[in-house]
Amino acid sequence: MDILRVSAKSNPNAVAGAIANMMREKHQVRMQVIGAASLNQAIKAIAIARGYVAPSGKSLYCIPSFLDVEIDEEKRTAIRLDIYENK
Asked: Do the beta carbons of residue 78 and residue 71 sit within 8 Å?
């Protein structure tokens, strides 16, 4: 599964568009964030994406989980956001 990585500098509208497109193709999206600012942008993007898919009668929901990742040989805790659709 492709992973959509969101940073603190990510544009929520652009990420929302990516979420909506991936939902049309694969019916699920996996996002990964590290840090509070990144999580903030990701949550805003999910809220915006819900508005994008609502006219088609779909609703999105998100399941968060923790994930240990290694960046530059340093262990970090990331948050994974799995997004699915209710029909």
From this structure: no
